[in-house]
Every structure is written in C-alpha cells, then in structure tokens.
Amino acid sequence: MPDAATSTTFSIAGDLEVNRLGFGAMRITGDGVWGPPEDLENARAVLRRAVELGVDFIDTADSYGPDVSEELIADALHPYPHGVVVATKGGLERTGPGQWPRNGRPEHLRAACEGSLRRLRLERIDLYQLHAPDEDVPYEESVGAIRELQDEGKVRHVGVSNVTVEQLEQARSIVEVATVQNRFSLGDRDAQEVLDHCEREHIAFIPWFPLGAGDLAEAPALTEIAQRHDASPFQIALAWLLHVSPVILPIPGTKSLAHLQESVAAGEIALSDDEVAQLSAIAE
Predict the structure, then answer these.
(1) Mean pLDDT over residues 248-261, rounded?
(2) In whole angstroms, what is the distance from residue 238 CA to residue 246 CA?
(3) How high is the pLDDT of residue 212?
(4) Is the CB of residue 206 less than 8 Å from the CB of residue 179?
(5) Is 0.90 topped by the overall pTM?
(6) Dihedral, CA atoms, 167, 56, 91, 68, nearest 10 degrees?
(7) pLDDT score for 282
(8) 23: closest CA among 280, 257, 269, 270?
(9) What distance in Å separates the CA atoms of residue 270 and residue 235, rounded to the nearest whole number?
(10) Distance (Å, rounded) from C-alpha 231 to C-alpha 49?
(11) Does the domain at residues 4-282 carry the CATH identifier 3.50.50.60?
(12) Residue 213: pLDDT above 60?
C-alpha cells in the first residue's frame, strides 16, 4: 500500500512537521471549481483515504466552491486526526464559474478567515495564506490584516501565494512567512527564482498545479524514466518535484480514489541524480 510518509517530511516554520506529499482539495468540488461535486460521498471518501494513506497536509481555500471544499473537509475529517494540518487561503472571490477576482481588502480578509474558521470547525487555522496580491490594495495592508488575525490567535502561521521575490520580502518585513504557494511543475518553471529564494531562506514552497507536465507527457526522457520505474509520467513528474528541492511540498489533487493512490505512490519513487538532471533539462 502506498504511504505518503515515504516522501520524507518538512517542518513548516519549525513546528508543523508534515509529510512532503500533501493533498490539494480544489478538485473535490464541482466542475469549474464551482458548487458541490456530483458525488458528495466519493469526495468525502477521497479525503478520508488520503489521511489513511499518510497524507497529513491538506490545502484548500474559501474560494474553492466557494466554501464547498472547506465544508467537505470538515464533514469528512472533523475531529481532525492528530497531526493533520489543514491549510486554507483567502483573498479571492467567486462571482461565477471560472471567475476569480482578487480582493485583498483587510475587511474582506478578516471575514474570509472567520468564515473559514466556522466551516472548518477550528478555533485556529494552522496555516492561513493570502491567495494573491490585489493590485487595487497596497500589499502591506493585505499582509498586515493577516498579521492582525495571527496576533488575535485565529491564525498560527502565515503564507503567501502567487508572489514575486520582491513581494515575498515585503511580506516578510511585516510577518514571518512560513510558506509560499506559486504555480510550478516540471513543465512550468516561471517561479524558479522564488523557489530558489525559498530554499535559501528555508521557507516551504507549495507548488500549485504540480502535475502541469502538459505537453511534456510524451517527452522521451520522461517516458523512458517512467518505464524504468514502472510508473506513469505524472508519477515521475511528482517524484521530480520531491527530488529537485528539499523545501517543496507538492499538493496533487484529485476526485478519484485510484488517482489518489497513484499520486501517493509517487513518493516511493527514488530518482537518481542523473534522472533528476535529465528531467530538469526537458523544459529548459
């Protein structure tokens, strides 16, 4: 049986020890990340199975559904097993399917956080992340609002998402930043500079869309290495993330029990240094 614990661990901010292969709970909602899924019990079963397989880091957001993902997590897992960390995010609104307007106003972030606390049935959120900078609101005001929530005991650790190195450092001048969540995958390295900075500063880097291998699925090096390990190309893409930097915490998401087990099994794949180098060269 695959076990997420084989992926090694990372200590977020020095006091949240989690297995490095987590679960992203965006896809357990309805189509277009809008509304409930067609099969509610299957969504709950996927969440429970993830924990059974050793996943102890679950990432969500109030905008997933909206609200649906957080409600399903609480329905399936509350009271949360010891050691399970549920991270969530605020700062995006949903005005319709496929629509994600940003809202970094302090009053919105406070309401978003308090709503997440209710839905997740928590008194304190272990990791609360600012979903994205809002160009209409000074970034320091948005980050400062989350710092206030932390000071009030509603948030344990603070993360930021979709940031540049400059924005990350601006946030760090206001609050200790425990995590950064940017888009990154084998086929998408635009956030490489941010990842490198996180590695130097020992900040956890959570890649969203971690299986964005896309057109690389048929790349000769990827298919050859996958065959060598009796694995799928997407499993190798996940394994590469775990090997390419010690601060990366991948959060593959799915609504399929079979795909969940496949993702967790990727944590057991031991790539050689040469294989990591070969894979890294694909998108360069």
Answers:
(1) 96
(2) 13
(3) 66
(4) yes
(5) yes
(6) 160
(7) 86
(8) 257
(9) 11
(10) 21
(11) no
(12) no
